[in-house]
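mind reviewing both lines:
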Amino acid sequence: MTIDVLAHADELRTNGVAFVQAVVVRAERPTSAKPGSRAIVHADGTMIGFVGGDCAQASVRAQALLALHSGEPVLLRIMPDDAADGTAPQPAHDGVITVHNPCLSGGTLEVFLEPTVPSPRVIVHGESPIALAFAELARHLGYTVETSAGHSSQLAAAVVVASHGDDEAEPLVAAVRAGVPYVGLVASRRRGPQVLEALELGEEEKARIHTPAGIDIVARTPKEVAVSIMAEIIALKASAEKEKASAEMPHGGTEMPDGGGPGVSGHADAPPATVLDPVCGMTVAAVDATLHADVDGVRYWFCGSGCRDAFVANPSAFAHR
């Protein structure tokens, strides 16, 4: 299993996919996990590998997603605790965060969480002064920049076409059809609509292309135009993340304001949502990969099957949660 997890991690790195590697570094008996046990936590909360039972894995999942959000590694200490008021994660101190897990059947477990966050990828078409200035700025801001027209638009964060009339249609159509979040065309206010009109795209697809690319900051030089384009990319990304966070706001639990700080993209966005298990009060991630149940149209999340089964059998017994 360890070999499979390591091979999977290498594959994710090669493909530029974000993930967290969780490795057990200390385990006090009795625990089902041993030092060296490891797992991969994907951005959607799914896990491959083994780092303990259901409850331990629930804590690892919740904290791993927060680590992926912050981009910072953390040592997670999971301790058994029967006290209902001791279950909230303690604030991180010197890279260590402590979780008191009331359902943990064994001893203390320490798991090192190491996030791997690939740099966002942008593709720049053209060799104009604006194209060169934008590529330089994007690299400075930590983006992976590709300038060859032969690169696939798949998984790109942005595609900017700044070739001043040379081979514009193909990269624009490819980027829109690939679902690239930001597609920009550097052109005048008069020429831009003419280029869009000639594209073999539907009206809604054409509307996704930003032209003239960039927000209006009365830019004059190529570097100033590059700044305006990057500002538009950042603003669009922040708006999309805010809308997504609002749509995914969990129900059926108390949201915990864990995490915070700069996100993996370099700006402060909403951290992954966490809620309280209504039975034991443990903090868990409000994602589909976490055990959950829908009762009377409301979704509840749980640390393990024991808590879920108890709740489903008698929801009213846990109304105080």
Observations:
- The helical segments are 2-14, 54-70, 129-140, 169-177, 191-197, 203-206, 222-247, 305-313.
- Confidence is low (pLDDT under 50) at residues 83-87, 251-269.
- Residues 222-247 form the longest helix (26 residues).
- The first strand starts at residue 19 and ends at 27.
